[in-house]
Amino acid sequence: MSKDFAERAKEIDLNSRELFQAAPGPMGAYRDLMTKVSADGVLDGKTKELMALAISVAIRCEGCITYHARASSKKGASREEVAETITVAVEMGGGPAAVYGAEALAAFDQFDGA
Amino acid sequence: MSKDFAERAKEIDLNSRELFQAAPGPMGAYRDLMTKVSADGVLDGKTKELMALAISVAIRCEGCITYHARASSKKGASREEVAETITVAVEMGGGPAAVYGAEALAAFDQFDGA
Amino acid sequence: MSKDFAERAKEIDLNSRELFQAAPGPMGAYRDLMTKVSADGVLDGKTKELMALAISVAIRCEGCITYHARASSKKGASREEVAETITVAVEMGGGPAAVYGAEALAAFDQFDGA
Amino acid sequence: MSKDFAERAKEIDLNSRELFQAAPGPMGAYRDLMTKVSADGVLDGKTKELMALAISVAIRCEGCITYHARASSKKGASREEVAETITVAVEMGGGPAAVYGAEALAAFDQFDGA
Amino acid sequence: MSKDFAERAKEIDLNSRELFQAAPGPMGAYRDLMTKVSADGVLDGKTKELMALAISVAIRCEGCITYHARASSKKGASREEVAETITVAVEMGGGPAAVYGAEALAAFDQFDGA
Amino acid sequence: MSKDFAERAKEIDLNSRELFQAAPGPMGAYRDLMTKVSADGVLDGKTKELMALAISVAIRCEGCITYHARASSKKGASREEVAETITVAVEMGGGPAAVYGAEALAAFDQFDGA
Questions:
Q1: For residue C4, what are the contacts with CB-CB under 8 A and spacing of at least 6?
Q2: Complex-level ipTM
């Protein structure tokens, strides 16, 4: 049986809130960085979200995969776009990226109601 | 209590199948790469499988450890060979490799019926 | 609900014992390395423990986070020191370090009885 | 004075040719993977090239940065698109990604004749 | 003959300036994060600088090593403190950290006029 | 023109000597670990050296590649064995491993007098 990614996302949100409260100065600056990066620019927000997902898979960051799979769904990415994004990570990360990429697709499917 | 690695392997297999179906072109090429690398050559398949396990431990890829611990067992690696393989990863990865190496040995023991 | 880090630590300890028994020579040398590094020197043991925690977060080593969060608590680190340590990891690791740093703080809180 | 990235690219090409000749089976399968990933799909080739650059920066792969900065220029990416791509890597990789991202921009500028 | 780290630092500074100008919003937020993290807190600035150096060595970030070796010297870290910091990275990173740690000590020696 | 790996190896040796002198306790324990891992066991020393090379390529550690390419040559590894070892790293590391693997083969060729 597959992991419950919504449950995992809730745990990440909860733990993050604690960290932001414990170190509001630096973490506030980090949030500002996130906000500025994810805004539409010459690249739209969805494309940048998919880039963040590609990096998450390539570096095998399980928590980041959960976070950015959810965000990709929210920004309207399609399953086909997510799958192609994952293949870039596989090109750049080999077998480990295939394992975590498969998890990313499963997470996206859960968040996207597929 | 230790993790159920057979259960974890099933989840990896299931998610992988979805990814291969969603991106058959690139993932087929990746499968071809895997097949060619794992074949006997001047190095036999078991030795290359142990190398893949060593890398899995050194890069702390939990899913890969499950996958390659199972494959090492299937290719007839002994517990002693797996343990020595893990020590190379510890030399090259320090404490984190010790933590994931210990998990690799536990996974091998489960798959090998030890 | 958050993870049970004490349970996770027990699993790490158990698996590590098996690895140390399976490869006593190299793993004994590694234990010797750990002992020498963690001793008080020109930097005290607590500071070095926090450095190990910072690295654990920056490299996203979930098992190491459990291990060094517990050790930081045992060496008397305060919650404020742990939080500042995590911010260094976030500076050096971005979003993934924020996710794993939040987990490190949660682990420390459990071990420290917060 | 900045590095000569064209010279570095030539060295990578030369060494790669040797590796492809030494292991034509697996490396041919890897080339096939690259070809399939970089083709236009639901995401166009330029976007996927920028994703590969983002990953290169996030994982601090100096040779990959050279390779994918050149490819991004060839696929018609603009300096603004490259800069935004790098900021995603900084969000996901912190200071190390800022250092390697700055190198990626310098490489792109050289290849793009800026 | 050893590398000229002052020259390398100048190149990093130059490339970074370009990146900050090309993406002032996100990079300004990142600079704000750096400033807040490096300030004295419950941990003093020197200790946090050494933590950043430890992470740089553990993740094998050559540019970061140059940057944080220089900053450690500026914040008054002693050679003994730097050496102990490196041993924590070796505990957490094995042989690769020994190679990059040796480079970090050489960089510190150059910046510190040893 | 390709890098001079013998020169690079000399620089690594020189810097390492300084680090071993600056922190003889921990670094002596690390040397002990290396010695015990590289000894013949159920896996012979050459095989373990090739495993260390595979890890070096997979984690993109340029200094380690130099070090372990030289050691692989000293232990009598053939060019074919090195090439197959690199393909395992490519399976486990994708494009970045192809770039660093190509460098590993070039380094081996220099040390082996090819």
A1: C110
A2: 0.97
Q: Using an 8 Å Cβ cutoff, are D107 and D72 in contact? A: no
Query: Can you tell me the distance from the alpha carbon of C47 to that of C39, in angstroms, rounded to the nearest whole number?
Result: 10
Q: Which two tokens stand for residue D76?
A: 């018609």
Percent pLDDT > 70 in chain A is: 97
Average pLDDT of every residue of chain F: 97
CATH class of A5-37+44-111: mainly alpha
CA C21 to chain centroid, in Å, comes to: 22
Number of other CB atoms surrounding residue B47 within 10 Å: 24
- SS3 labels along chain B: CCCCHHHHHHHHHHHHHHHHHHCHHHHHHHHHHHHHHHCCCCCCHHHHHHHHHHHHHHCCCHHHHHHHHHHHHHCCCCHHHHHHHHHHHHHHHHHHHHHHHHHHHHHHHHHCCC
What is the architecture of the domain spanning F5-36+44-111? Up-down Bundle (1.20)
pLDDT for res B114: 63
| B-chain residues near D33 (CB < 8 A) | 26, 29-30, 33
In whole angstroms, what is the distance from residue F29 CA to residue C30 CA? Answer: 7
pLDDT at D114: 63
User: Distance between CA atoms of A76 and F59, rounded to whole angstroms?
Assistant: 34
- Domain locations in chain A as residue ranges: 5-37+44-111
What letter would DSSP give residue A43? S
DSSP state of A76: T
The upper half-sphere exposure of residue F108, i.e. CA atoms within 13 Å in the direction of its Cβ, equals 32
Residue C3's pLDDT is what?
87
Q: Which residues of A touch B56 (CB under 8 A)?
A: 96
Q: What is the per-residue pLDDT for D3? A: 87
Q: Do A80 and B22 touch (CB under 8 A)?
A: yes
Rounded distance, CA E35 to CA E30, Å?
Answer: 9
Alpha-carbon distance of E51 to F59, in angstroms, equals 22
Helices (H), D39-78: 45-58, 62-74
Partner C, chain F 32-51, Cβ-Cβ below 8 Å:
32-33, 35-37
* Residues A111/A73, Cβ–Cβ less than 8 Å: yes
What is the model's pLDDT at position C53?
A: 98
Largest CA distance in chain D: 41
> Do C98 and C56 form a contact (C-beta atoms < 8 A)?
no
In this complex, do C43 and E87 lie within 8 Å of one another by their Cβ atoms?
no
CB burial of residue E90 (10 Å; 0-12, 13-18, 19+): buried
CATH number of E5-111: 1.20.1290.10
Is the Cβ pair B87, C52 closer than 8 Å? no
- Interchain CB contact of B93 with E (< 8 Å): yes
Alpha-carbon gap, residue A55 to D17, rounded angstroms: 28
For chain B, residues with pLDDT lower than 50 are: none
Question: Residue A86: in which H helix or E strand, if any?
Answer: helix A79-111
| Phi, psi at C93, each rounded to 5° | -140, 0
In whole angstroms, give the CA distance from residue C113 to residue A60: 31
**Tell me: domain B5-35+44-111, CATH 1.20.1290.10, correct?**
yes
* Site of tokens 């393989």: B85
Q: What is residue A3's predicted lDDT score, i.e. its pLDDT?
A: 87
List of chain D residues with pLDDT < 70: 1, 114
Token pair recorded at residue A91: 């090109």
SS3 of E4, please? coil
pLDDT of residue F3: 87
